[in-house]
Amino acid sequence: MATLLAFHAHPDDEVLLTGGTLARAADEGHRVIVVVATDGVMKSVAEGGTTRMNELRAAAAVLGVARVEHLGYADSGHGKDLYPDPPDRMRFVRASTEEAAARLAAILREEQVDLLLSYDPNGGYGHRDHVKVHEVGRRAAALAKAYSPGKAITHRIDVRRYAGQKQRALAAHHSQISGDGRLSAVARVLVRLPAPVFGRLLGREWYVEAK
Ligand SMILES: [Zn+2]
């Protein structure tokens, strides 16, 4: 059995980008860990609360994830402007890559992680925190010598069987689904779709091996 760690920028990325793969890996008996760089909150913890981390834990439980960790950074936001740091912590994009990678590498070593799932150089869609996940993930893998892009995981994962779980995990992110942004509107549509239709849309996940 292998230990797999999915490194993500924000709560809800774990479902949207890797939910089916994580559910499948857990179902097949592997130890699955999710680490988020940020808690998805732009404000201080005192002001922004812990709702999104709680939603992440609920979603992780649906997917069969054994452990959830937060590297301790604040969300950097995706608008044009990068706001100043909240008083209690740094925005992820401003963090030293070396320091953030050391935090992640500590977990990779402690868990003897076999496979690290991270993002491509564009971070999937260019969000500054996602691009940073790519840099930090690559560096942490080098520090911990953990990256063994796997035999167990192929590059194109059919997760249609896990579509129901992925959909329930997405539904656990209440605050995102009830928001008024465009992504929230999309998420609302997704959680209401009949499971087979959801599976056809989000029933495949892709990975590119990092060499
Ligand atoms: Zn994200």
Describe the protein's architecture and organization.
With 211 residues, the protein is α/β, with parallel strands linked by helices. It has a single domain (3-206), classed as Rossmann fold (3-Layer(aba) Sandwich). The chain is 45% helix and 14% strand. It is built from 9 helices and 6 strands. It has helices at 13-27, 45-48, 51-63, 97-111, 128-144, 163-171, 174-177, 182-192, 195-202, and strands spanning 3-8, 31-38, 67-73, 115-117, 156-158, 204-206. Strands 3-2-1-4 form a 4-stranded parallel beta sheet, with helices on both faces. Helix 1 packs across helix 6 and helix 4 (97-111) crosses helix 5 (128-144). The longest helix has 17 residues, at 128-144. The radius of gyration is 16 Å and the shape is globular. It starts with a strand and ends in a 5-residue tail after the last strand. The structure holds zinc ion (ZN). Zinc ion binds at residues 9-10, 13, 127, 130.
